[in-house]
Design brief:
Blueprint: H1 16-37, E1 44-45, E2 50-55, E3 58-59, E4 62-65, E5 71-77, E6 90-94, E7 99-103, E8 107-113, E9 119-124, E10 138-143
Parallel strand pairs: 2-5, 4-10
Antiparallel strand pairs: 1-2, 2-3, 5-8, 6-7, 9-10
Length: 144
Amino acid sequence: MPAQHSSRRVQPQPRFGLRLAVFVTVVVLVAGTAMWLLRPQASQVTDDQTIEVTMSGFTPANLAMAAGKPTTIRLVNPDSPYHMDGGGVHQFAVPALGLDIKVQPKSEQVFTIPTAKVGTYTFYCDVCCGGKENPSMQGTIVVS
């Protein structure tokens, strides 16, 4: 006796709504993360005039200081000793202010600029990453 097959077909459940919800959620998360990462970076100044600068490409690249007030700068070097050149050492040089600070890999250095006159000062790193000609290894301090 031959086996009988049911003529009833199994209908797949529509999952379009679930797929759309997952897709929209992923798009919103990716777009939100991208916007957060690409937001303009201003110097992070606290009440006691402390500015934090990350030194793997200066972030932020533009620092604002108040004239006549001491400003503390915290330099953070996240690079490893195996960084592409310079052994991971970064420099924060501001010739007009008499500063030439080198920060070892995976470390930080804090220093205070006692006061500075109103003006714009250029800073740079000239020990790695293409030197001071590399646009990401230079920035400005605006004292007002």
